[in-house]
Amino acid sequence: MDIDTLEYFIAVAELLNFSKAASLLHITQPALSRKISQLESEMGCELFKRRKPNLHLTEAGVFVLEKARRIVDLRDEMVTGISSALQIPGGRLRIGYLNLSQFALLSRSMDALGNNFPNIEINLRQHTLPVLRSLLDDGQLDLIFDMCSAEEMDAECTYHRVSEGKLYAVLPASHSLAGQKDISIEELSREKYVFFNRTTAPRVFDGLIQVCLQNGFSPDIAAYGDNMESVMMLVGIGKGIALMDADAKVLESRHTQFVPIRNHKSARVWYLVSRTDRLTPGISAVCDMIEELALTPDES
To answer: Which of 128, 155, 230, 290 is the most exposed place for a label (fewest CB within 10 A)?
Structure first.
């Protein structure tokens, strides 16, 4: 079920005529009939009594109509709230990110924001995590992507989770474990590692060290990268392996292989973070939308 289907149902319920509703909605009558049939199948009951030439709502149809109107109204209220809070037209949303691990989600978010709010100005800024947090606190950014654990959350901020925290081993394509369906963290205890420089993302660095220590070994760090791209390049040329979350798979190439680490999730995950004292209803709704996109599989 989606909003479009509910709007189709509302049109038929109000007009009590499939042909007129299809014309209003600019779709064919067979396509509209299929949508209503799918909704009835999902609901597990008939929503209309179809006795030619008359069409009437069933008791269940009356109930669904009331709820469908409310859902569509809530959608409209959210859109209006964002437009008002961000002062569209002329509004501006400033988002800070660390690296391309957020690229896929940012791309989908920009499409959704652009489609719903074509007049909004969206600014993206890339920095290290400490700089991003400083810019957020100073009011120079509205939202940032940050990685932290529940214990590290700041009471002055609001957090929307945008990653599952599933951990992957990033291996050179020629590595003996590269073809595995999954591997255990213990199998990686004797490997050489490529890590981020700690100054770029201290919590990411510390979190990965903690993962290794909790599993009984200290990682042998052979090389450091200033950003995710350089880490991936170092892995690709065989300098070592890396540990990354699923979002980094956007950078996977023929030189590298992402293999899930069995029964393990990182304690630190990615969040979309805003200052609570500057969290307008509109920015909150934007965060909700991006969070929903993050948890929805990308079928493109």
So the answer is: 155
